[in-house]
């Protein structure tokens, strides 16, 4: 869906100690001041961005503000405003604001929202990109775990390699949770006929249609204002060309994603 309205710049409410950026293409990171553990939320957002940093760099995704959100709709997990001007992520379950979602869930939401920097609707091109990003993320994590296992003294390389396989499978399962799960694919098994593939494609298309139709709507207050945020400027805002690119931001707000469960 699309929400239009006047946008206001985000300004930090108080000076803070800057910290090294998780990735050069993210300008600011912010958590909600209404919660007592804003520092923990900032750390969590930094860790999410750091985990996805190679993908952000490779695909040249620009994010002006990576921000915590607390929407009224409990099914709303993320928003992408103006194709990356702001990406907002729900960090806390609606039933327990003192806890945080697992890292795998937050990374899955962030990857989903990054895809909306390129594709607005949940169409085949969107899901192809999302599946590609998820595969890239898990492949990188898998290689790092295998390298660590092979270089650990006093351990069995084979056992560690198998353990890395199991961790990768579990992470893929977490990233495939919720609405993304409907797009998961199983490799191997029996040969699938043309008719079965056509039926599966039609079923997937129908799921995407229902997803777009039933996607929860954002309401007033879901996008927090600057005075409600604890904003932290990153030290290095430069990209490969030496400047943070923000030329794609239009004058109006266009919310191009409402990710639900």
What would your notes on this structure say?
It comes from Metschnikowia bicuspidata. It is a single chain. The protein folds into two domains: 26-120 and 223-259, no CATH class; 124-214, no CATH class. Helix content is 39%, strand content 13%. The protein has helices spanning 38-59, 103-115, 124-150, 157-175, 194-214; strands at residues 26-32, 63-69, 78-81, 86-90, 229-233, 255-259. Strands 5-1-2-4-3-6 form a six-stranded mixed beta sheet, covered by helices on one side. A hairpin with a 4-residue loop joins strand 3 (78-81) and strand 4. Helix 1 (38-59) packs across helix 2 (103-115), helix 2 packs across helix 3 and helix 3 (124-150) packs antiparallel against helix 4. It is globular. The model is unreliable at 1-6, 9-16, 147-161, 178-191 and 234-253 (pLDDT under 50).
What topology does this entry show?
Elements (H helix, E strand, L loop, with lengths): L25 E7 L5 H22 L3 E7 L8 E4 L4 E5 L12 H13 L8 H27 L6 H19 L18 H21 L14 E5 L21 E5 L2
Parallel strand pairs: 1-2, 2-4
Antiparallel strand pairs: 1-5, 3-4, 3-6
Helix pairs in contact: 1-2, 2-3, 3-4
Pfam family, one: WLM
Protein name: WLM-domain-containing protein
GO molecular function: metallopeptidase activity
